[in-house]
Amino acid sequence: MLVKPLYNECAAYVEDTKTLVVADLHIGIEYELYEEGAYVGSRVETLANKIIDLLRKTGARRLVVLGDLKHVIPSSPPSQKRDLQKFFEKLSLVDIVIVPGNHDGGIKKIVPKNVKVASSSGYVVEEKTLGFVHGHSWPSKEVIECSTVVAAHTHPMVELKDALGYSYFERCWVIARVDREKLREIYGIEKEIEFMIMPAFNPLCGGMVVNKEGIANPLSKIIDPGSMEVYLLDGSYLGKVKNLQI
């Protein structure tokens, strides 16, 4: 089952199941930024309209939100609740599955009927084939038994430097293989797994610089660090993380 990153987008598409996948929307982060002195205004309509556009372009019939739909924890202030309500209203005609992240506490109390909230330990699209997990907690054995596991949480970015020493940062995808020995130690399973780490859909989120900081989730304990490869949103292959150290 092929999971295809969409060109120049922080989203992926699963053709077999007509599923669009996004992660780390962090709806409500604007209010936290405002408290810190940065006024950017609500971005919920921009995010929702972008998703609607991708649903139309791909023909997807289902949306998987791979964690951290909302930002403020542990509960939702009125401003965030209003934005979440607006988000769900705009996407009321599509089936939505939320795989909860560490920012999604209490999400079941907020979602409407067309939204399924999966377990935080992950969601399997097809047995032993494709699994999703946010990445802040260990995946279930059912997810780990899949040949492809898509995760988020890290908000991966790569730092690049020009000839003058100026740095710039790009959101990116990280593709990696499993460390089979570590997998056997932790899960008692021996198999090949490909991991795909998604970039954050919301550009306000920032992220972890993978060629400096690696990836921040339990999956890092079963991923072979030497196998991690970086792809930009336009599909450009930058090489292995170990060769991109700054």
What does this structure look like?
- The protein has one domain (3-243): 4-Layer Sandwich (Purple Acid Phosphatase, chain A, domain 2), CATH 3.60.21.
- It is built from 6 helices and 15 strands.
- It has helices spanning 29-35, 44-58, 78-90, 141-144, 180-187, 210-213, and strands at residues 3-5, 12-14, 19-22, 62-65, 95-98, 115-117, 123-126, 130-132, 148-151, 156-161, 167-177, 194-197, 208-209, 229-232, 237-240.
- Strands 7, 8, 9, 10, 11, 12, 13, 14 and 15 form a 9-stranded mixed β-sheet that branches.
Average pLDDT figure: 91
Our measurement of the CA-to-CA distance between the termini, rounded to an integer number of angstroms, reads 35 Å
The major pleated sheet works out as:
9 strands, mixed
What is the name of the CATH class? Alpha Beta
What is the fold named in CATH at topology level? Purple Acid Phosphatase, chain A, domain 2
Radius of gyration: 18 Å
Give the helix/strand layout.
Layout: E1 3-5, E2 12-14, E3 19-22, H1 29-35, H2 44-58, E4 62-65, H3 78-90, E5 95-98, E6 115-117, E7 123-126, E8 130-132, H4 141-144, E9 148-151, E10 156-161, E11 167-177, H5 180-187, E12 194-197, E13 208-209, H6 210-213, E14 229-232, E15 237-240
Parallel strand pairs: 3-4, 4-5, 5-6, 8-9, 9-12, 10-13
Antiparallel strand pairs: 1-2, 2-3, 7-8, 10-11, 11-12, 11-14, 14-15
Helix pairs in contact: 2-3
